[in-house]
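PROTEIN DESIGN WORKSHEET
SECTION A - STRUCTURE
LENGTH: 320
TOKENS:
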């Protein structure tokens, strides 16, 4: 039987959400250099054993009306960082790309957009992002956009707009991952009704354990799993526990989802560099092996842990 460190190094580790593209700009950091601040850089990704990293281009409501330009700036930063680190990372636009990266011992970098404001209400813009390598879209951030309402617009009880329905349908056609993190609950149910393919909540936890509107209810978790989707565990302390967030409290979320739906629908979605401070025990991406050790202590079998660390997300990424 492998110990936690050995099992972690022997597994494919997928993190479905980080915001380092924004942090590189705000904190004047370089992805190639280990930093004393933040959560993610290439040296720490390697130390943490991450094989596949989703990089989010975060578009906030404040970026309007220049959201498309802002998205292009972040996409350019993504490719510039990869060019600087080409020996150790490569962009992933298909599952065959991902396999090539893994075979070559490189970090597979998957580009995403967080915030449908980036589309500026045009389906043509979505198709252009796809051509630029974007393979996942978080439909909303916390507020309302042309696609639908975010979690902070709950008073309206609004779901997807007609444009939002068209976006989900086109993402299905393009084999892009539809991400419902941040989406208000009526929109969540609309997505499950419209999408013909499994969807993800790239960085969300359980509302039963932490009553934050960003987290998913038990009904949402069960429905997402029933549709073949995946929840990426979020390390943002405010979404882990209202009073004493730490690694053990995060593991409680694993137990809760596993009890509701099984381990086949759990992944990792750290949200690293998307928040200030750190979750005690998981201070940055280099600390990920302790999560594997924690899962072993909780009694999860090796094959179950491999699924949580990355195997479940790989199942959906095969559709790229």
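SECTION B - SEQUENCE
RESIDUE ASSIGNMENT:
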């Amino acid at each position: 039987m492998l110990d936690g460190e050995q099992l972690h190094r022997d597994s494919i580790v997928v993190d479905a959400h980080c915001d380092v593209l924004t942090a590189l700009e705000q904190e004047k950091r370089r992805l190639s250099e280990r930093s004393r601040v933040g959560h993610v850089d290439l040296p720490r990704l390697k130390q943490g054993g991450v094989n596949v990293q989703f990089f989010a281009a975060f578009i906030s409501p404040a970026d309007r009306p220049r959201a498309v330009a802002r998205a292009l700036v972040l996409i350019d930063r993504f490719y510039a960082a990869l060019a600087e680190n080409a020996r150790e990372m490569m962009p992933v636009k298909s599952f065959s790309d991902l396999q090539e990266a893994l075979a070559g011992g490189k970090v597979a970098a998957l580009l995403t957009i967080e915030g449908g404001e980036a589309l500026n209400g045009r389906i043509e813009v979505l198709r252009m992002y796809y051509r630029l390598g974007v393979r996942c879209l978080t439909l909303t951030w916390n507020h309302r956009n042309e696609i639908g309402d975010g979690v902070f617009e709950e008073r309206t009880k609004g779901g997807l707009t007609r444009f939002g329905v068209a976006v989900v349908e086109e993402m299905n056609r393009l084999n892009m991952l539809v991400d419902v993190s941040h989406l208000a609950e009526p929109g969540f149910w609309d997505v499950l009704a419209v999408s013909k393919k499994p969807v993800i909540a790239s960085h969300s936890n359980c509302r039963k354990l932490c009553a934050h509107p960003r987290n998913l209810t038990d009904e949402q978790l069960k429905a997402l799993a029933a549709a073949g989707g995946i929840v990426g565990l979020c390390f943002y302390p405010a979404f882990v526990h209202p009073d004493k967030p730490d690694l053990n409290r995060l593991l409680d979320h694993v137990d809760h989802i596993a009890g509701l739906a099984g381990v086949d629908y759990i992944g990792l979605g750290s949200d690293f560099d998307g928040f200030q401070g750190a979750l005690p025990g998981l201070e940055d991406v280099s600390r990920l092996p302790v999560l594997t050790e924690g899962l072993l202590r909780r009694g999860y079998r090796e094959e179950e842990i491999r699924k949580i660390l990355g195997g479940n997300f790989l199942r959906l990424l095969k559709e790229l």
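SECTION C - NOTES
The chain is about 40% helix and 10% strand.
The chain has one domain: 4-317.
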